[in-house]
Design a protein that fits this description.
The complex is a heterodimer of chains A (about 290) and B (about 130). Helices cover about 65% and strands about 15% of the residues of chain A. Chain A has a five-stranded mixed β-sheet, sandwiched between helices. In chain A, α4 links the parallel β2 and β3. In chain B, α1 runs antiparallel to α2. The termini of chain B are far apart. The chains are: A alpha/beta (about 290), B alpha+beta (about 130). Chains A and B meet through α1, β6 and α7 of A and β4 and β7 of B. β6 of chain A pairs parallel with β4 of chain B, so a sheet runs across the interface.
């Protein structure tokens, strides 16, 4: 059994760990509020954008000549996966959940003998994927330096994707991110952005009465809008991701703080018990020593 | 019947403006300025750099936009833009800054005609702004 001194040291070390996790929790809580606000503010833009594109694509007259970004290349050979994770650790299952979701998708693709290419956004995703999928990772992007998420970063990612698409490097593109539902629930999402998957139910609703006037021409609008939409979707994913990251970190740190508290309690009881045992032992020794005189 | 409709301007970061009681909105559409009144036909169009004018019965606000998409449907006007400024918030320093950036950009050798046209538009609009 550990000596009194050892116990004392352990208690103080657990206590200082608890202080750190508590501080991290509070920082995450403060950041979460901002990130959550941003994510909620950002939603209307991407939703509107999606709506417009849906309206447009349902109204498009000849599907044959639709832009490739919308209709796809006609093949499904090469898949590009954009895995979006955080740059920092200590946020519970946040990164692992995305990676798990992505890996399922990877395996499905590889089983079908298709070519897999991966872009990682955020350094943690790269760290977790590099062991298994090193050859598949064609690019890794990290925004460690930019403090706040901004549209330009998302645009950069979007441009890389479009450039690769135009070079014919892939046929299908999907992004992986965590959707922020609330502080304790984040849902890992898989979203296909090229070719654009339209929600069929919505399409039925909108196609009934839409007679839009276009200026300039329909296809010109589409070819302009689609790249923008990709950046927008990525931006949305980044916003959702950052809110999820903070939420996940907050609950992870909350748990850690609580666990540390429990541990301190347990150790303190153990410490007191063994101290008492030592005192009792000494007393018995003294008494029995006195009796034997 | 009232002549008012709803306008919503959103940029990627937030919902920039949402107004219920607008009587007329003038947007710098790609092929010329376009005034939108109530019960306009459904339309989707692009914006070029220019001034958006939002008029209601009592007042009138102007915004400077660099690009964007407008959609009008069922008396809902949505404007999606990545950069928008309220003109009353723009001081001459800020205008000069954007103007210089635009000038820099127009000097680049490898821009296509459409881009050049857009930048020239932007410079034009900004110049007019800084005069006022």
């Amino acid at each position: 059994m550990a000596s009194l001194d050892d116990l004392k040291k352990r208690i103080s070390s657990v206590k200082s760990t608890q202080k750190i996790t508590k501080a991290m929790k509070m920082v995450a809580a403060a950041k979460l509020r901002r990130a959550q606000e941003n994510a909620e503010k950002g939603r209307p833009y991407s939703e509107k954008m999606n709506n417009i594109i849906l309206n447009l694509s349902s109204g498009i007259s000849d599907k044959e000549n639709a832009p490739k970004l919308l209709a796809g290349t006609g093949e499904k050979k090469t898949h590009l996966c954009v895995v979006m994770t955080s740059d920092r650790g200590l946020c519970g299952g946040f990164n692992t959940n995305i990676i798990k979701k992505a890996k399922q998708y990877f395996q499905k693709i590889l089983k079908e003998n298709k070519i897999l290419k991966i872009i990682t956004v955020g350094s943690k995703g790269y760290d977790q994927l590099k062991r298994q999928y090193k050859e598949n990772i064609i690019e890794r992007i990290s925004f460690k330096d930019s403090k706040n998420i901004n549209y330009f970063d998302a645009d950069k990612v979007g441009k890389i994707i479009i450039e690769k698409f135009e070079k014919g490097e892939f046929d299908v593109c999907a992004i992986f991110y965590n959707q922020f539902k609330n502080v304790i629930t984040q849902i890992p999402q898989e979203q296909q952005i090229i070719p654009l998957k339209s929600n069929e139910e919505e399409e039925k609703e909108t196609s009934s009465n839409n007679s839009y006037e276009f200026e300039p021409e329909e296809d010109e609008i589409l070819s302009n809008l689609l790249p923008k939409n990709i950046s927008t979707q990525i931006f949305k994913a980044m916003l959702e991701n950052s809110a999820s990251e903070q939420g996940s970190r907050m609950s992870a740190m909350d748990n850690a703080t609580r666990n540390a508290g429990e541990m301190v309690d347990k150790l303190t009881i153990q410490y007191n018990r063994s101290r008492q045992a030592a005192i009792t032992k000494e007393l018995i020794e003294i008494i029995s020593g006195a009796e034997s005189l | 019947m009232s002549e008012e409709f709803k306008v919503e301007i959103v940029n990627p970061e937030k919902s920039f403006l949402s107004k219920e009681n607008v009587t007329e909105v003038v947007v710098p559409a790609f092929e010329g300025e376009m005034g939108i009144l109530k019960d306009h036909i459904s339309i989707i169009s692009f914006l070029k750099p220019g001034i958006i004018k939002v008029c209601s019965k009592s007042d009138e606000t102007k915004y400077f936009v660099e690009d964007g998409i407008v959609e009008f449907k069922d008396n809902n006007l949505s404007i999606l833009t990545s950069s928008i400024y309220n003109i009353s918030d723009l001081d001459s320093n800020k205008v000069d800054q954007i103007l210089n950036e635009a000038k820099e950009e127009s000097k680049q050798a490898n821009i296509d005609d459409q881009k050049k046209y857009l930048i020239d538009q932007k410079i034009e609009v900004l110049k007019n702004l800084s005069v006022n």
